[in-house]
Amino acid sequence: MIVEIIAITPDDVAVAAAAGADRIELVSGIAEGGLTPSAGLIEAAVQAAAIPVNVMIRPHSQSFRYNEADQLVMLRDIEVARAAGAAGIVIGLLNDEGEIDRAALERMLAAASGMDVTFHRAFDELQDQADGLRVLSEYKAISRVLTAGGLRPAPESCDQLRMLQELSAQLGGPRIMGGYGLNADNAAELVKKTGVPEVHFGSGARLNGSFQYGVDVSAVERIRSNWPMRA
Fold it and tell me: pTM of the predicted model, to two decimals?
C-alpha cells in the first residue's frame, strides 16, 4: 500500500516522510484546491526528504480547461519541476465537452517524459468515469488516477472506486489512488471495500484536520500502521 500525503511546506515533507509517508503531492494555493508551487518551494521540498515529490501542475483554479496560454505555462512549469528534482507531476485536463483533453494531455506527457505522472481529481468531474479510465489507460506514461469515485468523499463512493479498480486491472491501466475525505480512521475500511493500492491524504493527515496546521505525525503513523509493509 502506497501512502501519499499533500504537502504545502518543506516542513510538511520532512514530517510526513519521517512518519512513514511514501510519496508527497506538493501544492500551493490549497484553499483553491491546489495550484503549482514555486520553483523555490519545489527545490526545498525535494531536499527536505528522500521520498518522491510529485508536483501539482495547475496554473489556475477557474476550471480544468486550459487554453494555449495556460498550456504554455504548464509546459514551462513541468520543465521547472524536472530541473528542481521532482520525481513526477500531477495533472488533469478536460475539454469544453467535459471529457479528457487528449491533445493537451499528450503535450504534457511529452514534456514530462520519464517522470512519474498522476492524473488528478479532474477525473471526478467526468460524466462517465469508466470511459475516462479507458482513455487514460491508452497512455502508459500515466502511473495513477487520483479519484474519490465522484464528487462526494471517497468513503461514500466505495462501489464506484471498486468498479474503477477492477476495470483498471482488466485494462492494465493506471493504478487507482483513493483520495478526498480519508483519514486514519476510515482509510483501512475503504481499502478493504475497494481494493485500491494507493491512498491519498490531505487535511485528514493534519493537526486538527486543517491545513492551517502542519502534518500530524501521529495521524500519519496510524495510517501507516495499517500497512506496515511498503509496496
Answer: 0.96
